[in-house]
Amino acid sequence: MFQPGASIPLSITILNKDVEVQVIAEIVNSNQTLVSKESKIQGGSTQLLVLSPIPDSELNSLFPYMLVVKGYGGRDQMLFANSTVLYLNPRMFSTFIQTDKANYKPGQIVKIRAVSIHPDGKPYKSKIDIIIKDPKGNMIQQWLSLDNVLGVASKEFQLSENPSFGNWTIATSVNNVVSQKKFSVDHHVLPKFEVQIKTPSVHHRVDVLLGTVTAKYIYGKPVQGQMNITYLHRFNGTDVRYDTHKQIDGSTDFSFDVPDHRNMSEQSNDSVFEDDVDDEFITIMVHVTESLTGLTYHSTVDVTVVKRRYNLAFHGYSSYIKPSLNFTAELKISTYNKRPLTGEDQQKTVTLLVIQQSSWSWVPDNSEFILPRVLLNFTRPGLPPVPDGVPVQKLVLTVPADGLIPINIKLSDEVKILTIYASFEDSSNVLQVCTGYRSLSQFYLQIQKPRAALQVDVPLQLMLQSNLTLTEIHYLVMSRGQLLSSGTSKPSSLTLTPQKSWAPFACIVVYCVTSDGEIVSDALHVPIKQVLQNNVSLSWSVDRVRPADVVSLKVSVAEPMSLVGILVVDKTPNSLNTHNDITKEMVLEEMASYSMNNTDVPAGSVIMDDPYSAFETAGLVILTDAKFERMGEQMSPELMEEIQFLGNEGNDMDEEQKPGEHRDFPETWLWLDINTGDSTTVEVPVTVPDSVTSWVATAFVMSADLGIGIIDAPAKLTVFQQFYMCLNLPASIIRGELLFVDVTVFNYLDWALEVVVTVAQSDFFEFVLWDNDEISMTNTRQVSVGRQNGTSLLFPIRPLVLGEIDISVKALTSVASDVVRRTVQVKPEGLEQSFSKTVFLELVDSGKSISRDIAFTFPAAVVKGSQRAQVTAVGDTLGPSIMGLESLIQMPYGCGEQNMIHFAPNIYVAQYLNASRQANHDTLTKATSYMIKGYQQELSYQRLDGSFSAFGDSDASGSTWLTAFVLKCFLQARPFVFIEGSVLSRSVAWLVTQQGVDGAFSEPGRVIHTELQGGLDGPVSLTAYVLMALLEDGSYKNIYASQVAKAVVFLEIKVALGISSNYSLCLATYALALANSKSAVQAMKQLMDLEGMKDGLPSWSSSDMGLSESWQPRSTHIEMAAYLLLSIQKLSMVEDGFALLKWLSQQRNHLGGYASTQDTVVALQSLSQYKACCGSEHIDLYITVNTAPTTTVANFHIDNTNYLLYQSRDIETRSEIFLNVTAKGQGFALFQMNVFYNLASTGLARRQIDTTQKTFDLHVELFDVDMYYVHLYICTRLLEGLSINQTGMTLMEVGLLSGFELAQKGIKTNDVVRKVETPPGKAILYLDSVTTEEICVEATLFMAFKVVKVQDATVVIYDYYEPRRRTVRTYTSYWRDNMEVCSFCGKACPQCDGQEVSEADIVSGSVPGYVFPHSLHHHAVYGAFFLLVIIACGLLAYGVKYLYTKRSLANTE
């Protein structure tokens, strides 16, 4: 094979010394000579003839090339001619892919570099494609035909907030050569400290195992805490566990006496494979729990337990023996732990038995190993018995200090098997080597392996052996698939000087020809230490800094105009084992791969040592008229290799033990591409991040002349403060609660410090005394902090205002100080509410004005101080939605359908802006970026069969409706973002299988959207919905023409017969309009004739049973109006849709969306496609907002320069809001008033008597008998007598008590609770559906922050696609609500005299300030519960289940 752009060298040997030959070599393709060369070669010599590279225009890897060589003597007499086939090997470069990390969290940016080099390390410059694939193999992102700088291309990839978890793939393609790199995506948390175990990796069974555990923070300081060590003794498939507990202060020693279980494996002692089946390990697992925070991290190591103290291993021997020549090898004696041999060891001797057999003796069974019979009775230690009649040579040798014993054995002429037994003390080993090829002439040639390592430019002398008389020999040198050297040498030795081009492996072939024309040869593969020609170094201006300091990173390279790729990551535990960096070892290994054989050798086989194989193993093709023997069969390698290790640990323990668990996830600080310009040094000033940790800087360099270089030693920067504070504060609390400012002071100096800690005074909060909650002026505490230690302080405060409050804490000592600032949000109590009123302002003629009045009255139960209001104005129909693309609705979006709120609206915004010629780069960039993230997230919900469902493969089946929805949106998005074709084709293929013989589509999956998927007309709406998706793309419409036609006919028949559901009729009308069906006009007429239509506006009546009051219409009414508007536009009835346009525009919320996903998506699609009022060519409006004739609260000016700008003003609120809005000028605008307030939650605890506006029966109970953990039990069901008996996707938002968070796995997912999300302050449960049968959920909460006077928390359950189907309940902790400060903080507050709440206090009712509710004392079921807690906390769950029977719930009332 040959490589593109590379010359093709030939070695020509003229065996006849009496002639001079004119040699002509040429490469031919399709009868055309591509390159040729000729040379005169003297007989008896070897000469290198180099053909020029084949032109790039003639290269084709699909077709073979012919090498033709001819030799001519005098008078142009042809002496020989021969040819062979050559193939193009397109691999002429390598591409390395680097990422900043190996592990990512959702929402992070993946930084990517692709580095392409030639085999010699120099940059390979060519266009490159970079492709990102998710764990399912879906193509998420691609960049095509990227340019590079010195072979380096860089890109960034933004992960979505909800990507597929698992291993992602980065694939690069350069000239159709693909390289790949993996990175993983998962939830993970950076460890705060690291635990390391230092112990020998190999341990002798009879000794005591010793080791040290070190626990240090990332910045190097010791950790104080508790340590648990588990020893797992593994032997013969058995695991025995031993545990011990200790204190740790940075580090501590441990010891373990390994039990002797040899008696349990005595039955295996007679086996020659004893050591293979009797593997013995000690797994050491260490858990360290930090005293201050309770954080626990762990580490694990494996220790191999060996039975013998010494290892015997054979090295430096040939794979085959050659009769009548010398066999050389080395026996290496070493200790099990690689320590030097002692003087006592060197006084001992090693015994060798050498057996040369002239016949084969095979094991008669079908064993996978080919073993001579003499091994069958070999037991250890000691030497094996030798069969009678077999000559044995016994050697007793002394042991040198280095343990290397040379072996030199003269082989007999008839030898076929050479066996060498070695025995030393308790260990032994055996080496067996056989003949591979037997020469017909009995002549052999052999290269003796050199003992010293080869070095570049250092002469190498190879000793040669032969049993025939020679005057000279010929030689060849091959490396990286290239013939580098050839010539002749004297027969006893060969002297060569290795060059850089030989590295990292060279194959040296020597050969000669006997008098009867037989070629005799041998080949030797020799490693040559390879080094990269280029180098780069990094150094910090200082090696220890404080957070936020400015430091310089100095970059030094070997030559100017170099490109340096710099990566600086957080050094977390074992970070060097979990990187995705480019390392020197990686590059050298790849460059070495070009030196591998080009011959296809089956895995697990060994090429024989016949003359042909000697050349073949070097990757050479031979053309000759001499005798050239080739063995017909290849042998299994077990004879040579497996027997070599039949002794005990004869592998010399060269292989590393399997690594322990890796738990680190390094974060990125710097990712820089620097061009050094005309200099060889560059200094980069950078600001150190706030993290107290260690940063590790690595780099590679690339230059045109020297190629790639990798940094030898990473540059480490330690960021550390010897004295600092940290604050533990929640993100938010509720007004009326008391918050503890939890301050932890760390002192890592070598002496104790007296520290004054001060919380800055503020108008936003007040300090609280320890005993009676009265206002205090004390905001300063003094505390002594020991050396290398930390101390916690508590400052109780009472917030005085709503909104954000700034908390600033200062710690001062005589030698150091620190200041920390944090912000806490103070929220009003009660339930959040909002109201929006939109006014459509339109002035056709300039010079006129229009005035509208807007009023709002706050309800009587409004929470004081929670009221706020704003007014907005924008000059475009989609203006509010364009501004709110990040979050259009106030609802979670964690399932496959709801996630599309991140995707679909951006399509319609982009379509609208393009169609109306209003597009600008920033808006389109934002929209497409959201589409890319949404696409990435949505693919995590695609199932293996191509369908989509709410929760992907965890669902029992795909969803017809959701698959159609996603398909339609993906097809619409293709003009803006990349959508992989296979994603679409697989979805369509699955979708059409859901169609029945009548043309209707059915739903095999769960009902997610009850109006669209359920009811008597369910097949109609679902079929119409699927038909819309199939009609979105012309190619799929044609491919599945019959399915489309059947669906159209089904809908036409239903329209003719009459569709009872207004919702289904709206969808059918639009689907038929898209299909250009004549029935669409009939369906539209039926819609317009409905009783619910008035002046072109929908006022459909429907049952409000179970629906809560709201200013917004039902979500289904929004959808119906949107489909109607789409149908009007499609049927060219534009004038009839203007009223609908205004109506839909006025129903949006303050975020720019509607109530749910489907109504928002369809409404925005209809608004974007209806362009009757989208013109902005003539707009110049002045809008004035007055609360009284002379009181103006806001002014807006909208013209052609800012009509897309979403302008807003905050206004003051009173019990009533009255606004007069006046617009003057010309054009169109949307004016909106948004009001926000909280309603008091009084009366919503547990059960609500009034059920007229309820959908769900909802019960919430809190069991709070532990200071740090509480249990929340929630039961719900759908009330009977409603218009539905089952909801679709339902969400339950569980508000958490202030200071509490959901414990890890605190809510179990199952067939009902499909997913749990934990945004700050709440837990969101995704329920597949809710029926009239009660379901219950248990949640475990833990106290993360210190808060007293805890207010009520709220639980809300609602139907996602009809949010007005909702029920609200509150719950509270009675004793935390009345708890005094001293009862909580105890010893942390000196003035409290150690007062602290215990579990016994809680159970007995003696908590200070806590009065048990009357009902709690008078119901046996509660009393029984508390009794259960006192007797056995393990029975808690059972008691709760009993409590939550319907009978006990009834008793509670």
TrEMBL record:
Start and end residues of each Alpha-2-macroglobulin domain: 668-759
Membrane spanning stretches: 1420-1440
One of the Pfam families matching this protein, by short name: MG3
GO molecular-function terms, A-Z: serine-type endopeptidase inhibitor activity
PROSITE patterns registered for this protein in UniProt: ALPHA_2_MACROGLOBULIN
Keywords of the record: Disulfide bond, Glycoprotein, Membrane, Protease inhibitor, Serine protease inhibitor, Signal, Thioester bond, Transmembrane, Transmembrane helix
PANTHER family for this protein: CD109 ANTIGEN, MACROGLOBULIN / COMPLEMENT
Protein name in the entry: CD109 antigen-like
Species this chain originates from: Umbra pygmaea (Eastern mudminnow)
